[in-house]
Amino acid sequence: MKCQILRVLPTRSSFCSSVNSTQLARSCNGTIPFSGGTSLESTLAAMNEEIFIDFQKMNKTIAVHEQDMDVVVQPGISYDALNEQLADQKLFFPPDPGPGAQIGGMIAQGCSGTNAYRYGTMKDWVLGLTVVLADGTIIKTRGRPRKSSAGYDLTRLFVGSEGTLGIVTEASLKLTDKPENVRVAVGAFPDIHSAIRTAVGIVRSGHPLAAMELLDDMAMKAVNSSGYSDIEWPEKTTLFFKFAGSPAHVAEQVEEVERLAKEQQCVQFTFSNSADEADSLWEARKTALWNMIALKNDPSDNFISADICVPISRLGDMIAATKDSFERSGFIGSCLGHVGNGNFHAGVFFPAKDWEKAKGLMREAQKLGVSMDGTVTGEHGIGLVNRDALIWEVGDGTVATMRQIKMALDPLCLLNPGKVFKLWEGQE
Amino acid sequence: MKCQILRVLPTRSSFCSSVNSTQLARSCNGTIPFSGGTSLESTLAAMNEEIFIDFQKMNKTIAVHEQDMDVVVQPGISYDALNEQLADQKLFFPPDPGPGAQIGGMIAQGCSGTNAYRYGTMKDWVLGLTVVLADGTIIKTRGRPRKSSAGYDLTRLFVGSEGTLGIVTEASLKLTDKPENVRVAVGAFPDIHSAIRTAVGIVRSGHPLAAMELLDDMAMKAVNSSGYSDIEWPEKTTLFFKFAGSPAHVAEQVEEVERLAKEQQCVQFTFSNSADEADSLWEARKTALWNMIALKNDPSDNFISADICVPISRLGDMIAATKDSFERSGFIGSCLGHVGNGNFHAGVFFPAKDWEKAKGLMREAQKLGVSMDGTVTGEHGIGLVNRDALIWEVGDGTVATMRQIKMALDPLCLLNPGKVFKLWEGQE
Questions:
Q1: Of A17, A416, B64, B199, which is least packed with CB atoms within 10 Å of its CB?
Q2: Which class in CATH covers the domain with range B186-291?
Q3: What does the alpha-carbon distance between residue B424 and residue B422 come to, in Å, rounded to a whole number?
Q4: Domain A183-287, CATH
Q5: Tens digits of per-residue pLDDT, A28-60?
Q6: What is the reported pLDDT for B275?
Q7: DSSP three-state, residue B303
Q8: How far is CA A84 from the centre of its chain?
Q9: What is the fold of B63-177?
Q10: A386 and B150: CB-CB below 8 Å?
């Protein structure tokens, strides 16, 4: 343990002088809570000999309330294990980030996934939290009511705070009914704009599709090249639609989606007639990221990606501009994502020597997203990597306000220090 | 303007000594933002010569983004005026608290209403906010992406903070498609428990009803006595169901709801065959609070109510116990509310001299709600009236954490001082 005297960065203005003038004495290193370890953006990077708290053994389901459709869990359970436990009771926990993610990390990241179009993100599925604060105080943000106006929404302040405000030791999660009669349709489009116009039409129609995902031409080429799929796909911008509900309601939605797709010159519309066929069609979306590896020029190439989310009317222009910039760069890259809510992932493969150039491409895409009233991260978070981008997006004053909350709850900067924003001058 | 030296109440522990030891010098009185003025729980009470900021003239719609299904507004527009403006574009803003409420106050209160069962509460419909902080800094919490993981969720921290953390001057709001083909059904039940079992069955079925509301026997008696309704209603616990969607989907839901209701000995199930009939059936729910006045023993009687929300499996016991306590008290009272998410309003009429007794009844009901893992306020907020109840519900440590955030963002306690929790010793 070392003791350092550090000058805290400005919070908002001289108005809040008690914090501004503080010099921070750190008598011990920071602490990083760790569950599934699947986060991106260096959220879990230990920069200064931080201590990890591993939640591997705190993986219990404490209570399932079937009638209330909620569950109380520890942070070390994964969402897929939880859904397996809930399946017999026909209950379902929707947030579905990358495989292996656990509830603690999902809360820290405010994550989402393919189900977010219909069901929203992690923020919408946490009822209440038990949190250990930086000074060891244990608080419970609330019980299990479906809604509450009782005081500040600390629950949603902790969700997405990347372990910087407190350590979650228990969570009450909302559940819903397990989707039944799941069907999938896939449509290939002549270009990105016709695909996005279809997506906008579907969103406006109000049909509650279970998911709507986009893979661009390069991603579809990767699916074909990987050899994992039995189907030979058109190498065009492709939308994957997931439906769930009563057979009549699904039929109604499929008819409407096919009509909207064909209005936009959809060149191939394939519909699954059974649950097995649905799984097989969805497989291409599910394995897209891994399939991308088939496109690598050189096995030693690195990969970098961005996670932009813009208002859906701008998504066509956004993806088209990003793809243009990839083409100009000479790197192989693609765009895919959760088109129903305007979120997409843009990534390129690049040789190690071109790190700055590749990073510049991502920064350029993020800045374009912000200029379209979007966000630099729809679901991956800020971590270390996107700290500058957070400032471009929301401005100095907003980041300073976040820092002020951090300094109020964790004045010695013990919890995942330096993530989301810098705390002191010279912090890495 | 007067200057007072005040001793700030503890925040969390001696760990946060910078705030704990502060003596607060208030050089001016506080400020209370004011829009529709319909809030309950004394959120807008001026206790110490506070200055009101009236948003009456900041009532503009700045931009409607039809494809993105969002709108940018000023705080002084009412939700019904907004929905009138949006109707031609078949867009809809769901939160529906009491008539006259305006967006600024709806944000401050984190309100909801009858639409919350299907659509969620105000927290789910605010994309981003422009906020003036206590020191005059203007921040924007984010743009208009449908989702974001960029830093702390300041948007949802301000929503429900009752004007104590900042003053909202602009809001981007999410919209959805205007519900079409709205139909209503009404079922009368032998007792509260059979009605709640029906509600639980419907929630578990996963059918996305537009609303599900409960009026107890006393509330139905009030509807009959008021003379406003053409229908002679059974004076029994009654559920009001609202459906919206395609005709086939509505028909499917009505059939399932009728089946579930009849399983629970529903004695009368009435369904509207047209939009006009639907309006006429729903009228009884809409005017329930005003109709209640017909039950008053004495025109000078006062009214007090509570706004409890519990996990739905406990709602039958909760309402039954509350009704028993009303009967024992000798006051006339009833329970009604948003049963789909476990939220109900319990209220009694009482002579002025019995204020303490009537207040005690409400406190007893709130404490029972908390013991059932519920909340003392599902949608009305804390204000001045429920400050003690907030402490019973979430505990000292959680309230101290809220106070710490308040002190970080508004160290001179200029913004709606004393609401949600007390700030200094002796504060009224």
A1: A17
A2: alpha beta
A3: 6
A4: 3.30.70.2190
A5: 679 999 999 998 888 999 988 899 999 999 999
A6: 86
A7: strand
A8: 22
A9: 3.30.465
A10: yes
